[in-house]
Amino acid sequence: MKNLFSGWADSEKIEAAMEIGRSASRMIERGKGLQNLIEFAKSHREGRLSIYSLRGLYRMVSRLDGAEPVTTTQRRDHKNSVGGTLIEWAVKL
């Protein structure tokens, strides 16, 4: 399975994790926190979730437009690695 993703940029791997909602470990108790953060950000008037992992950045920005969230995403890859994974989130109450 690792060979399947070897040609992917780090930001593409983060995006896939955001969409699939599963941990690479495949353990049943893993991979739920990210989906919870996505829903948390989308449930507020304005929410942002940024994930930096190795050299990749994936950012989701959500704004409530009436009852439905309008979500935009951005991917970027950097020359240097953060050496792990950092998750930043912010919401407007």
State the helix count. Answer: 3
* Silhouette: globular
Q: Number of domains in the coordinates?
A: 1
How many angstroms separate the termini?
A: 41 Å
Structural class: alpha+beta
Mean pLDDT: 86
What percent of residues are in strands? 35-45%
Strand order of the largest sheet: 3-2-1-4
- Record field, number of beta strands: 4
Quaternary structure: single chain
- As residue ranges, the low-confidence spans are none
What helical percentage do the residues reach?
25-40%
What pattern of helices and strands is seen along the backbone? HHHEEEE
Query: Radius of gyration, rounded?
Result: 14 Å
- Sheet having the most strands: 4 strands, antiparallel
Kindly describe this structure.
The protein is α+β, with helices and mostly antiparallel strands and 93 residues long. The protein has one domain. Helices cover 27% and strands 39% of the residues. It has 3 helices and 4 strands, in the order αααββββ. It has a 4-stranded antiparallel β-sheet, covered by helices on one side. Strand 1 and strand 2 (56-65) form a beta hairpin. The chain starts with a helix and ends with a strand. The mean pLDDT is 86.
